[in-house]
Design goal:
- The protein has about 450 residues and is an alpha/beta fold.
- The chain folds into four domains: about 120 residues, GTPase HflX, N-terminal domain (Rossmann fold), CATH 3.40.50.11060; about 90 residues, no CATH class; about 160 residues, P-loop containing nucleotide triphosphate hydrolases (Rossmann fold, 3-Layer(aba) Sandwich); about 70 residues.
- The chain has a six-stranded mixed β-sheet, with helices on both faces.
- Strand 9, helix 13 and strand 10 form a beta-alpha-beta unit.
- Helix 2 packs parallel to helix 5.
- The protein is elongated.
- The protein starts with 15 loop residues before the first strand and ends with a helix.
- The N terminus is likely disordered.
- It binds guanosine-5'-triphosphate and magnesium ion (MG).
Length: about 450
Protein backbone atom coordinates (compact mmCIF):
# COMPACT_ATOMS: atom_id res chain seq x y z
CA UNK A 1 0.00 0.00 0.00
CA UNK A 2 1.25 3.43 -0.74
CA UNK A 3 2.19 5.52 2.24
CA UNK A 4 -0.45 8.13 1.74
CA UNK A 5 -3.28 6.08 3.20
CA UNK A 6 -1.52 5.55 6.49
CA UNK A 7 -2.60 7.45 9.56
CA UNK A 8 0.69 6.72 11.23
CA UNK A 9 4.12 6.89 9.74
CA UNK A 10 4.75 3.54 11.39
CA UNK A 11 7.65 1.18 11.33
CA UNK A 12 9.97 3.83 12.65
CA UNK A 13 11.69 3.07 15.94
CA UNK A 14 10.39 6.32 17.43
CA UNK A 15 6.82 5.00 17.48
CA UNK A 16 6.68 3.98 21.13
CA UNK A 17 3.21 3.59 22.52
CA UNK A 18 1.52 3.55 25.90
CA UNK A 19 -1.86 1.83 25.96
CA UNK A 20 -4.69 3.08 28.15
CA UNK A 21 -7.72 0.97 29.00
CA UNK A 22 -10.69 1.92 31.08
CA UNK A 23 -13.32 -0.37 32.46
CA UNK A 24 -16.59 1.42 32.79
CA UNK A 25 -18.53 -0.07 35.62
CA UNK A 26 -22.04 0.09 34.21
CA UNK A 27 -20.93 -1.64 31.05
CA UNK A 28 -19.50 -4.65 32.84
CA UNK A 29 -22.98 -5.91 33.46
CA UNK A 30 -23.36 -6.41 29.75
CA UNK A 31 -22.29 -10.02 29.45
CA UNK A 32 -20.60 -9.66 26.09
CA UNK A 33 -18.28 -6.88 27.26
CA UNK A 34 -14.66 -7.99 27.19
CA UNK A 35 -12.87 -7.72 30.55
CA UNK A 36 -10.26 -4.99 30.67
CA UNK A 37 -7.26 -7.31 30.44
CA UNK A 38 -8.60 -9.18 27.42
CA UNK A 39 -9.51 -6.01 25.63
CA UNK A 40 -6.07 -4.54 26.31
CA UNK A 41 -4.35 -7.71 25.15
CA UNK A 42 -6.24 -7.32 21.89
CA UNK A 43 -5.39 -3.61 21.68
CA UNK A 44 -1.73 -4.54 22.10
CA UNK A 45 -1.97 -6.88 19.13
CA UNK A 46 -3.70 -4.18 17.12
CA UNK A 47 -0.96 -1.70 18.05
CA UNK A 48 1.78 -4.12 17.08
CA UNK A 49 0.04 -4.97 13.83
CA UNK A 50 -0.09 -1.25 13.06
CA UNK A 51 3.67 -1.09 13.65
CA UNK A 52 3.81 0.46 17.12
CA UNK A 53 6.14 -0.69 19.84
CA UNK A 54 4.19 -1.02 23.07
CA UNK A 55 6.23 0.26 26.02
CA UNK A 56 3.63 0.50 28.76
CA UNK A 57 0.00 0.16 29.76
CA UNK A 58 -2.24 1.98 32.17
CA UNK A 59 -5.73 1.07 33.33
CA UNK A 60 -8.52 2.67 35.28
CA UNK A 61 -11.88 1.48 36.53
CA UNK A 62 -14.53 4.15 36.40
CA UNK A 63 -18.19 4.52 37.14
CA UNK A 64 -18.51 6.75 34.15
CA UNK A 65 -16.01 8.25 31.74
CA UNK A 66 -14.88 11.83 32.30
CA UNK A 67 -16.36 13.85 29.46
CA UNK A 68 -13.27 16.01 29.03
CA UNK A 69 -10.40 13.55 29.26
CA UNK A 70 -11.99 10.09 29.62
CA UNK A 71 -9.64 9.24 32.50
CA UNK A 72 -9.51 11.15 35.81
CA UNK A 73 -7.11 13.93 36.72
CA UNK A 74 -4.91 11.73 38.89
CA UNK A 75 -4.69 9.08 36.13
CA UNK A 76 -3.77 11.72 33.63
CA UNK A 77 -0.82 12.72 35.82
CA UNK A 78 0.16 9.06 36.07
CA UNK A 79 -0.01 8.83 32.30
CA UNK A 80 2.29 11.83 31.91
CA UNK A 81 4.78 10.23 34.29
CA UNK A 82 4.63 6.93 32.40
CA UNK A 83 5.19 8.73 29.11
CA UNK A 84 8.22 10.50 30.56
CA UNK A 85 9.61 7.29 32.02
CA UNK A 86 9.20 5.20 28.88
CA UNK A 87 9.96 7.85 26.31
CA UNK A 88 6.64 7.11 24.62
CA UNK A 89 5.40 9.42 21.90
CA UNK A 90 2.07 7.77 21.17
CA UNK A 91 -0.85 7.07 23.51
CA UNK A 92 -3.55 4.68 22.38
CA UNK A 93 -6.88 4.59 24.18
CA UNK A 94 -8.92 1.41 24.05
CA UNK A 95 -12.14 3.44 24.01
CA UNK A 96 -13.20 5.59 21.12
CA UNK A 97 -12.40 9.15 22.15
CA UNK A 98 -14.93 11.88 21.56
CA UNK A 99 -13.59 14.81 19.53
CA UNK A 100 -13.51 16.84 22.73
CA UNK A 101 -11.57 14.20 24.65
CA UNK A 102 -9.15 13.91 21.77
CA UNK A 103 -8.55 17.66 21.83
CA UNK A 104 -8.23 18.00 25.59
CA UNK A 105 -5.89 15.02 25.87
CA UNK A 106 -3.68 16.40 23.13
CA UNK A 107 -3.50 19.68 24.96
CA UNK A 108 -2.73 18.00 28.27
CA UNK A 109 -0.05 15.70 26.88
CA UNK A 110 1.71 18.26 24.73
CA UNK A 111 2.85 18.56 21.16
CA UNK A 112 5.22 15.62 21.09
CA UNK A 113 2.67 12.99 22.00
CA UNK A 114 0.22 11.65 19.47
CA UNK A 115 -3.19 10.67 20.83
CA UNK A 116 -4.98 7.80 19.11
CA UNK A 117 -7.83 5.45 19.90
CA UNK A 118 -8.75 1.89 18.97
CA UNK A 119 -10.76 3.07 16.00
CA UNK A 120 -7.85 5.04 14.56
CA UNK A 121 -5.63 1.96 14.89
CA UNK A 122 -8.11 -0.29 13.14
CA UNK A 123 -8.55 2.25 10.38
CA UNK A 124 -4.79 2.40 9.99
CA UNK A 125 -4.49 -1.37 9.70
CA UNK A 126 -7.33 -1.47 7.19
CA UNK A 127 -5.55 1.18 5.16
CA UNK A 128 -2.47 -1.03 5.04
CA UNK A 129 -4.51 -4.01 3.89
CA UNK A 130 -6.82 -2.57 1.28
CA UNK A 131 -5.97 -3.86 -2.20
CA UNK A 132 -9.08 -3.67 -4.33
CA UNK A 133 -10.41 -0.38 -5.57
CA UNK A 134 -13.54 -0.73 -3.48
CA UNK A 135 -11.50 -1.59 -0.38
CA UNK A 136 -9.25 1.42 -0.81
CA UNK A 137 -12.20 3.77 -1.35
CA UNK A 138 -14.09 2.36 1.62
CA UNK A 139 -11.20 2.77 4.01
CA UNK A 140 -10.45 6.26 2.81
CA UNK A 141 -14.10 7.22 3.27
CA UNK A 142 -14.16 5.76 6.78
CA UNK A 143 -10.96 7.61 7.65
CA UNK A 144 -12.31 10.96 6.54
CA UNK A 145 -15.63 10.46 8.29
CA UNK A 146 -13.74 9.58 11.46
CA UNK A 147 -11.41 12.51 11.09
CA UNK A 148 -13.86 15.27 10.22
CA UNK A 149 -15.12 16.04 13.75
CA UNK A 150 -11.64 15.49 15.15
CA UNK A 151 -9.71 18.01 13.13
CA UNK A 152 -7.27 19.36 15.66
CA UNK A 153 -3.54 19.75 15.73
CA UNK A 154 -2.78 16.08 15.21
CA UNK A 155 -5.33 15.57 12.51
CA UNK A 156 -4.53 18.63 10.50
CA UNK A 157 -0.97 17.46 10.66
CA UNK A 158 -1.93 13.97 9.56
CA UNK A 159 -4.29 15.18 6.93
CA UNK A 160 -1.45 17.10 5.43
CA UNK A 161 0.66 13.95 5.38
CA UNK A 162 -2.07 11.74 4.10
CA UNK A 163 -3.92 13.76 1.54
CA UNK A 164 -1.68 16.71 0.91
CA UNK A 165 1.47 15.00 -0.17
CA UNK A 166 -0.44 12.79 -2.57
CA UNK A 167 -1.80 15.83 -4.28
CA UNK A 168 -5.17 14.17 -4.66
CA UNK A 169 -7.23 16.04 -2.13
CA UNK A 170 -4.73 18.80 -1.67
CA UNK A 171 -5.52 19.09 2.04
CA UNK A 172 -3.29 21.46 3.94
CA UNK A 173 -0.12 21.97 2.04
CA UNK A 174 3.47 22.91 2.60
CA UNK A 175 3.98 25.94 4.79
CA UNK A 176 0.56 25.79 6.40
CA UNK A 177 1.46 24.78 9.91
CA UNK A 178 -0.27 25.02 13.22
CA UNK A 179 -3.85 24.53 14.21
CA UNK A 180 -5.00 27.99 13.15
CA UNK A 181 -8.74 28.26 12.90
CA UNK A 182 -8.52 29.29 9.28
CA UNK A 183 -6.55 26.21 8.43
CA UNK A 184 -9.07 24.05 10.24
CA UNK A 185 -11.87 25.57 8.21
CA UNK A 186 -10.00 24.93 4.99
CA UNK A 187 -9.34 21.37 6.04
CA UNK A 188 -12.97 20.75 6.98
CA UNK A 189 -14.26 22.04 3.69
CA UNK A 190 -11.70 20.01 1.82
CA UNK A 191 -12.54 16.83 3.69
CA UNK A 192 -16.26 17.27 3.08
CA UNK A 193 -15.58 17.71 -0.60
CA UNK A 194 -13.45 14.58 -0.59
CA UNK A 195 -16.10 12.58 1.27
CA UNK A 196 -18.69 13.51 -1.36
CA UNK A 197 -16.25 12.52 -4.10
CA UNK A 198 -15.48 9.17 -2.48
CA UNK A 199 -19.17 8.39 -2.07
CA UNK A 200 -19.68 9.01 -5.75
CA UNK A 201 -16.76 6.81 -6.77
CA UNK A 202 -17.95 4.05 -4.46
CA UNK A 203 -21.44 4.16 -5.91
CA UNK A 204 -19.92 3.56 -9.36
CA UNK A 205 -17.81 0.64 -8.21
CA UNK A 206 -20.82 -0.88 -6.49
CA UNK A 207 -23.09 -0.53 -9.47
CA UNK A 208 -20.52 -2.52 -11.39
CA UNK A 209 -20.40 -5.19 -8.74
CA UNK A 210 -24.16 -5.43 -8.53
CA UNK A 211 -24.12 -6.28 -12.22
CA UNK A 212 -21.63 -9.05 -11.55
CA UNK A 213 -23.76 -10.30 -8.69
CA UNK A 214 -26.80 -10.52 -10.94
CA UNK A 215 -24.84 -12.55 -13.45
CA UNK A 216 -23.82 -14.85 -10.66
CA UNK A 217 -27.43 -15.30 -9.55
CA UNK A 218 -28.31 -16.48 -13.05
CA UNK A 219 -25.94 -19.42 -12.63
CA UNK A 220 -26.91 -20.08 -9.08
CA UNK A 221 -24.04 -21.97 -7.52
CA UNK A 222 -24.64 -22.03 -3.76
CA UNK A 223 -22.60 -19.45 -1.88
CA UNK A 224 -20.91 -20.28 1.41
CA UNK A 225 -19.38 -17.45 3.44
CA UNK A 226 -16.52 -17.81 5.88
CA UNK A 227 -17.07 -15.50 8.80
CA UNK A 228 -15.40 -15.21 12.17
CA UNK A 229 -13.42 -13.18 14.60
CA UNK A 230 -10.21 -11.75 13.20
CA UNK A 231 -7.32 -14.26 13.28
CA UNK A 232 -9.65 -17.26 13.70
CA UNK A 233 -8.21 -18.94 10.60
CA UNK A 234 -10.70 -18.12 7.82
CA UNK A 235 -8.08 -17.51 5.15
CA UNK A 236 -6.08 -20.54 6.19
CA UNK A 237 -9.26 -22.60 5.81
CA UNK A 238 -9.99 -21.16 2.36
CA UNK A 239 -6.42 -22.00 1.35
CA UNK A 240 -6.69 -25.52 2.75
CA UNK A 241 -9.89 -26.15 0.82
CA UNK A 242 -8.97 -24.52 -2.46
CA UNK A 243 -5.25 -23.75 -2.79
CA UNK A 244 -6.41 -20.16 -3.03
CA UNK A 245 -3.10 -18.77 -1.76
CA UNK A 246 -4.83 -16.02 0.13
CA UNK A 247 -2.64 -14.08 2.55
CA UNK A 248 -2.98 -15.60 6.02
CA UNK A 249 -0.90 -14.36 8.90
CA UNK A 250 -0.82 -14.19 12.66
CA UNK A 251 -1.94 -10.59 12.54
CA UNK A 252 -5.28 -8.98 13.20
CA UNK A 253 -7.13 -8.11 10.01
CA UNK A 254 -4.76 -9.90 7.66
CA UNK A 255 -7.66 -10.02 5.21
CA UNK A 256 -9.67 -7.05 4.10
CA UNK A 257 -10.91 -7.60 0.58
CA UNK A 258 -13.14 -10.55 -0.19
CA UNK A 259 -11.90 -13.56 -2.17
CA UNK A 260 -14.14 -16.19 -3.71
CA UNK A 261 -13.17 -19.66 -4.92
CA UNK A 262 -14.98 -22.73 -6.22
CA UNK A 263 -15.01 -25.79 -4.01
CA UNK A 264 -16.40 -29.26 -4.71
CA UNK A 265 -18.32 -30.86 -1.89
CA UNK A 266 -17.85 -34.58 -1.14
CA UNK A 267 -21.02 -35.42 -3.11
CA UNK A 268 -19.74 -33.58 -6.19
CA UNK A 269 -21.79 -30.41 -5.85
CA UNK A 270 -19.96 -27.15 -6.45
CA UNK A 271 -20.12 -24.17 -4.16
CA UNK A 272 -18.57 -20.70 -4.08
CA UNK A 273 -16.61 -20.14 -0.90
CA UNK A 274 -15.98 -16.54 0.14
CA UNK A 275 -13.43 -15.27 2.62
CA UNK A 276 -13.72 -11.74 3.89
CA UNK A 277 -12.82 -9.27 6.60
CA UNK A 278 -12.88 -10.54 10.18
CA UNK A 279 -14.94 -9.13 13.01
CA UNK A 280 -13.74 -7.59 16.26
CA UNK A 281 -15.35 -6.23 19.41
CA UNK A 282 -16.02 -2.48 19.44
CA UNK A 283 -15.97 -2.56 15.65
CA UNK A 284 -15.95 1.13 14.75
CA UNK A 285 -19.35 2.19 13.43
CA UNK A 286 -17.68 4.20 10.66
CA UNK A 287 -16.14 1.00 9.40
CA UNK A 288 -19.32 -1.01 9.60
CA UNK A 289 -21.00 1.75 7.60
CA UNK A 290 -18.20 2.03 5.07
CA UNK A 291 -17.90 -1.74 4.68
CA UNK A 292 -21.58 -2.38 4.68
CA UNK A 293 -21.60 -3.31 1.02
CA UNK A 294 -18.75 -5.80 1.48
CA UNK A 295 -20.33 -7.23 4.59
CA UNK A 296 -23.69 -7.49 2.90
CA UNK A 297 -22.18 -10.09 0.59
CA UNK A 298 -22.73 -12.32 3.58
CA UNK A 299 -26.45 -11.87 3.01
CA UNK A 300 -26.00 -13.63 -0.35
CA UNK A 301 -24.76 -16.75 1.39
CA UNK A 302 -26.84 -19.92 1.51
CA UNK A 303 -24.74 -21.16 4.42
CA UNK A 304 -22.32 -19.45 6.77
CA UNK A 305 -19.24 -21.23 8.09
CA UNK A 306 -18.44 -19.56 11.39
CA UNK A 307 -14.72 -20.14 11.99
CA UNK A 308 -13.83 -20.10 15.68
CA UNK A 309 -10.37 -20.16 17.23
CA UNK A 310 -11.25 -22.70 19.90
CA UNK A 311 -7.87 -22.17 21.60
CA UNK A 312 -8.37 -18.45 22.21
CA UNK A 313 -8.90 -17.53 25.87
CA UNK A 314 -11.74 -15.18 24.92
CA UNK A 315 -13.37 -17.66 22.53
CA UNK A 316 -16.87 -17.40 23.97
CA UNK A 317 -16.95 -13.63 23.83
CA UNK A 318 -15.52 -13.74 20.32
CA UNK A 319 -18.31 -16.07 19.25
CA UNK A 320 -20.94 -13.79 20.76
CA UNK A 321 -19.38 -10.77 19.08
CA UNK A 322 -19.54 -12.47 15.68
CA UNK A 323 -23.14 -13.53 16.26
CA UNK A 324 -24.07 -9.97 17.26
CA UNK A 325 -22.48 -8.50 14.12
CA UNK A 326 -24.27 -11.07 11.96
CA UNK A 327 -27.57 -10.05 13.54
CA UNK A 328 -26.78 -6.37 12.93
CA UNK A 329 -26.19 -7.15 9.29
CA UNK A 330 -29.50 -8.94 9.04
CA UNK A 331 -27.81 -12.35 8.61
CA UNK A 332 -28.85 -13.65 12.02
CA UNK A 333 -31.25 -16.21 10.56
CA UNK A 334 -28.86 -17.81 8.07
CA UNK A 335 -27.96 -21.43 8.64
CA UNK A 336 -24.55 -21.64 10.30
CA UNK A 337 -22.01 -24.45 10.48
CA UNK A 338 -19.48 -23.75 13.21
CA UNK A 339 -15.87 -24.81 12.66
CA UNK A 340 -13.82 -25.15 15.85
CA UNK A 341 -10.37 -24.41 14.47
CA UNK A 342 -6.75 -24.87 15.60
CA UNK A 343 -7.42 -28.13 17.44
CA UNK A 344 -3.84 -29.15 16.64
CA UNK A 345 -2.83 -26.81 19.45
CA UNK A 346 -4.99 -28.59 22.00
CA UNK A 347 -4.82 -31.85 23.88
CA UNK A 348 -7.82 -34.13 23.58
CA UNK A 349 -8.91 -33.24 27.15
CA UNK A 350 -8.64 -29.51 26.62
CA UNK A 351 -10.64 -29.86 23.42
CA UNK A 352 -13.39 -31.84 25.10
CA UNK A 353 -13.64 -29.28 27.89
CA UNK A 354 -14.02 -26.39 25.46
CA UNK A 355 -16.26 -28.26 23.08
CA UNK A 356 -18.94 -28.54 25.69
CA UNK A 357 -19.74 -24.89 25.03
CA UNK A 358 -20.12 -25.49 21.30
CA UNK A 359 -21.66 -28.93 20.97
CA UNK A 360 -22.63 -28.49 17.30
CA UNK A 361 -19.16 -27.30 16.26
CA UNK A 362 -17.02 -29.40 13.92
CA UNK A 363 -13.45 -29.69 15.25
CA UNK A 364 -10.93 -28.90 12.54
CA UNK A 365 -7.38 -27.80 11.96
CA UNK A 366 -7.18 -25.66 8.88
CA UNK A 367 -3.41 -25.71 9.17
CA UNK A 368 -3.10 -29.50 9.29
CA UNK A 369 -6.10 -30.24 7.12
CA UNK A 370 -7.92 -32.16 9.84
CA UNK A 371 -11.70 -32.49 9.88
CA UNK A 372 -12.26 -30.76 6.55
CA UNK A 373 -14.26 -33.62 5.03
CA UNK A 374 -16.59 -33.63 8.01
CA UNK A 375 -16.96 -29.86 7.78
CA UNK A 376 -17.82 -29.96 4.08
CA UNK A 377 -20.27 -32.77 4.56
CA UNK A 378 -22.05 -30.72 7.22
CA UNK A 379 -22.26 -27.86 4.72
CA UNK A 380 -23.63 -30.34 2.23
CA UNK A 381 -26.30 -31.45 4.71
CA UNK A 382 -27.45 -27.89 5.26
CA UNK A 383 -27.57 -27.22 1.53
CA UNK A 384 -29.48 -30.43 0.98
CA UNK A 385 -32.16 -29.23 3.38
CA UNK A 386 -32.54 -26.13 1.24
CA UNK A 387 -33.08 -28.18 -1.92
CA UNK A 388 -36.21 -29.74 -3.30
CA UNK A 389 -36.51 -33.45 -4.03
CA UNK A 390 -37.01 -34.05 -7.74
CA UNK A 391 -37.16 -36.77 -10.36
CA UNK A 392 -36.59 -35.85 -13.99
CA UNK A 393 -36.47 -37.73 -17.23
CA UNK A 394 -34.22 -35.74 -19.54
CA UNK A 395 -34.29 -36.74 -23.21
CA UNK A 396 -31.00 -37.54 -24.92
CA UNK A 397 -29.59 -34.45 -26.55
CA UNK A 398 -30.28 -32.28 -23.51
CA UNK A 399 -27.03 -33.25 -21.86
CA UNK A 400 -26.53 -29.73 -20.55
CA UNK A 401 -29.51 -30.24 -18.23
CA UNK A 402 -28.09 -33.50 -16.94
CA UNK A 403 -24.80 -31.72 -16.32
CA UNK A 404 -26.65 -28.91 -14.58
CA UNK A 405 -28.30 -31.39 -12.23
CA UNK A 406 -24.93 -32.92 -11.42
CA UNK A 407 -23.24 -29.60 -10.85
CA UNK A 408 -25.93 -27.89 -8.82
CA UNK A 409 -27.71 -30.74 -7.16
CA UNK A 410 -27.24 -34.00 -5.39
CA UNK A 411 -27.77 -37.08 -7.53
CA UNK A 412 -29.17 -40.00 -5.57
CA UNK A 413 -29.86 -42.24 -8.53
CA UNK A 414 -29.17 -42.08 -12.26
CA UNK A 415 -30.39 -44.45 -14.96
CA UNK A 416 -30.42 -44.54 -18.73
CA UNK A 417 -33.68 -45.41 -20.38
CA UNK A 418 -34.62 -45.82 -23.98
CA UNK A 419 -35.44 -42.12 -24.30
CA UNK A 420 -33.15 -40.37 -21.98
CA UNK A 421 -31.54 -40.03 -18.58
CA UNK A 422 -33.53 -40.52 -15.42
CA UNK A 423 -32.25 -38.55 -12.45
CA UNK A 424 -33.45 -38.72 -8.87
CA UNK A 425 -32.12 -36.39 -6.23
CA UNK A 426 -32.30 -32.85 -4.98
CA UNK A 427 -31.68 -29.49 -6.61
CA UNK A 428 -31.96 -25.86 -5.52
CA UNK A 429 -35.45 -24.43 -6.12
CA UNK A 430 -34.38 -22.28 -9.08
CA UNK A 431 -32.78 -25.26 -10.82
CA UNK A 432 -35.98 -27.20 -10.25
CA UNK A 433 -37.65 -24.41 -12.23
CA UNK A 434 -35.29 -24.97 -15.16
CA UNK A 435 -35.98 -28.69 -15.12
CA UNK A 436 -39.74 -28.32 -14.75
CA UNK A 437 -40.59 -29.51 -18.26
CA UNK A 438 -38.93 -32.88 -17.63
CA UNK A 439 -40.23 -33.59 -14.15
CA UNK A 440 -41.82 -36.98 -13.75
CA UNK A 441 -42.30 -36.98 -10.00
CA UNK A 442 -45.53 -36.38 -8.20
CA UNK A 443 -46.58 -40.00 -8.43
CA UNK A 444 -47.32 -41.69 -5.13
CA UNK A 445 -44.43 -44.03 -5.28
CA UNK A 446 -41.62 -42.53 -7.29
CA UNK A 447 -39.54 -45.66 -7.21
CA UNK A 448 -42.17 -47.92 -8.71
CA UNK A 449 -42.84 -45.36 -11.41
CA UNK A 450 -39.18 -45.30 -12.25
CA UNK A 451 -38.95 -49.04 -12.33
CA UNK A 452 -41.76 -48.94 -14.79
CA UNK A 453 -40.20 -46.39 -17.15
N1 LIG B 1 -2.04 -23.95 14.98
C1 LIG B 1 -2.91 -23.52 14.07
N2 LIG B 1 -2.82 -22.28 13.57
C2 LIG B 1 -3.72 -21.88 12.66
C3 LIG B 1 -4.75 -22.73 12.19
N3 LIG B 1 -5.50 -22.04 11.30
C4 LIG B 1 -4.94 -20.81 11.22
N4 LIG B 1 -3.87 -20.71 12.03
C5 LIG B 1 -2.99 -19.55 12.21
O1 LIG B 1 -3.75 -18.47 12.73
C6 LIG B 1 -3.29 -17.24 12.18
C7 LIG B 1 -4.45 -16.51 11.55
O2 LIG B 1 -4.90 -17.21 10.42
P1 LIG B 1 -5.68 -16.50 9.22
O3 LIG B 1 -6.12 -17.59 8.31
O4 LIG B 1 -4.91 -15.39 8.67
O5 LIG B 1 -6.93 -15.95 10.03
P2 LIG B 1 -8.16 -15.08 9.48
O6 LIG B 1 -9.38 -15.57 10.20
O7 LIG B 1 -8.18 -15.10 8.00
O8 LIG B 1 -7.75 -13.66 10.06
P3 LIG B 1 -8.06 -12.18 9.50
O9 LIG B 1 -7.98 -12.19 8.02
O10 LIG B 1 -6.96 -11.43 10.16
O11 LIG B 1 -9.40 -11.81 10.03
C8 LIG B 1 -2.19 -17.60 11.19
O12 LIG B 1 -0.95 -17.46 11.83
C9 LIG B 1 -2.47 -19.06 10.88
O13 LIG B 1 -1.31 -19.78 10.53
C10 LIG B 1 -4.81 -24.06 12.71
O14 LIG B 1 -5.65 -24.89 12.37
N5 LIG B 1 -3.87 -24.39 13.65
MG1 LIG C 1 -7.99 -13.65 6.68
Amino acid sequence: MSGRKRLLPTGTPEERAVLVGVEIHRRRRWQDAFPLEESLAELKRLAETAGLQVVGTLTQKLDRPFPATLIGKGKLEELKALIAATGANVVVFDEELSPRQQRELEEALGEDVKVLDRTALILDIFAQRARTKEGVLQVELAQYIYRLPRLTRAWTHLARQVGGSAGRGGIGGVGLRGPGETQLEVDRREIKRRIAQLRKELAEVRAHRELYRQQRREVPVPVVSLVGYTNAGKSTLLNALTNAQVYADDKLFATLDPTTRRVKLPGGQEILLTDTVGFIQKLPPQLVAAFRATLEEILEANVIIHVVDITHPAVERQVRTVEAVLRQLGAGEKPVVMALNKIDRFSEEALQARRRHFPQGVPISALKGWGLEELLSRVEDVLREQMVPITVHVPYGKDNLVALFHRMGIVEDERYTEHGTLLIGRVPPNIAGQLEAYRVDGAKDERSRIEGV
